[in-house]
Design brief:
With 287 residues, this protein is an all-alpha fold. The protein has one domain: Rhopdopsin 7-helix transmembrane proteins. Helices cover 73% and strands 1% of the residues. The protein is built from ten helices and two strands, in the order ααααβαβααααα. A two-stranded antiparallel ribbon has the order 1-2. Helix 7 runs antiparallel to helix 9. The longest helix is centred in the first third of the chain and has 37 residues. The protein is globular, with a radius of gyration of 21 Å. The relative contact order is 0.13.
Length: 287
């Protein structure tokens, strides 16, 4: 099975499984912190939970596309290619909403600590740009072919539909990636501006540094992803091979985004395990 995959398929499979595990570790820690501190779910939590659900679907489709397409492709090459393209299409459609949900969760989290009007306005503009671009990109991706299923079925029936100009989606993807990278960098650096005049202890600084570092990494992944977006006809036999890099960096970016969003809320956990301290002390007179 896995040993029979193309090396790039193996790399993507290992990356996806590894980050899927890490994402669930971090979201579990976030839930643990919430259950032991505030004991209530806030709006940014709902957005990150929605992001994890979409991310899980994205990861499942990726793994299905890699493994099942390889198995079927051994006996029926065109059917295997059809499955791989189906996987690519579904994940391409999920990618923009997933990224938007992650950034929205982080933005809503920052709104809770932002008091200056300019900082809040920056966040609101960021959110508006995120969702306008996401909706536009989503519809272009989903309806690039007519019917939509022709995107992946054309390898089985070339005369079963039609698609828009092959350059439109790559150009839209590049525009979306550049915009998303800028938005990620804004959300990464904004905590510094928000907390510039606030005296912070080392653990709080570590939390801000973590959010900054992860946010920057996610933004860098967006930029690295851009050169991998290629102007390749879907019917090209090299389509899946040439777009492997795009899939790789898409997994990296969304995974790091969720981890960054969760890491920013784990400060009480780290504080509780500081030297000479126990996490979430209880009253001594409770039995």
């Amino acid at each position: 099975m896995i040993s029979d995959l193309d090396p790039r398929g193996v790399r993507l499979f290992v990356l996806q499984v590894t980050f899927l595990v890490l994402v669930y570790i971090f979201i579990s820690l976030r839930i643990l912190v919430k259950s032991l501190t505030t004991k209530k779910i806030s709006l940014d939590d709902w957005f990150i939970f929605a992001a994890v659900i979409v991310y899980t679907s994205h990861a499942t489709i990726t793994i299905w596309g890699i493994v099942y397409a390889s198995e079927v492709g051994d006996d029926d090459f065109k059917r295997g290619e059809n499955i791989a393209l189906h996987s690519w299409f579904l994940n391409e459609a999920l990618y923009a909403p997933l990224s938007a949900l992650i950034r929205t969760s982080i933005a809503v989290f920052l709104l809770r600590i932002a008091t200056a009007k300019i900082h809040r306005n920056i966040i609101y503009v960021n959110l508006a740009c995120t969702w306008v671009l996401t909706i536009v990109y989503f519809f272009i991706v989903v309806f690039q072919c007519s019917p939509s299923s022709y995107f992946y079925d054309q390898v089985l029936d070339p005369s079963g539909g039609s698609c828009i100009d092959k350059n439109i989606v790559p150009r839209t993807t590049i525009a979306h990636s550049i915009s998303s990278a800028i938005q990620n960098f804004i959300l990464a650096f904004l905590p510094i501006a928000i907390l510039w005049h606030v005296k912070l202890n080392k653990r709080t600084k570590a939390g801000v540094a973590t959010l900054l570092g992860m946010g920057l990494l996610a933004g860098i992944c967006f930029i690295i992803r851009i050169p991998h977006v290629k102007f390749i006809p879907i019917s090209s036999p090299d389509f899946l091979e040439q777009t492997n890099g795009t899939a790789f960096w898409s997994v990296m970016e969304t995974s790091l985004g969720i981890i960054a969003g969760c890491a920013a809320t784990l400060r009480p956990l780290m504080r509780g395990f500081g030297p000479g301290r126990t996490p979430w002390r209880r009253d001594s007179h409770h039995s």
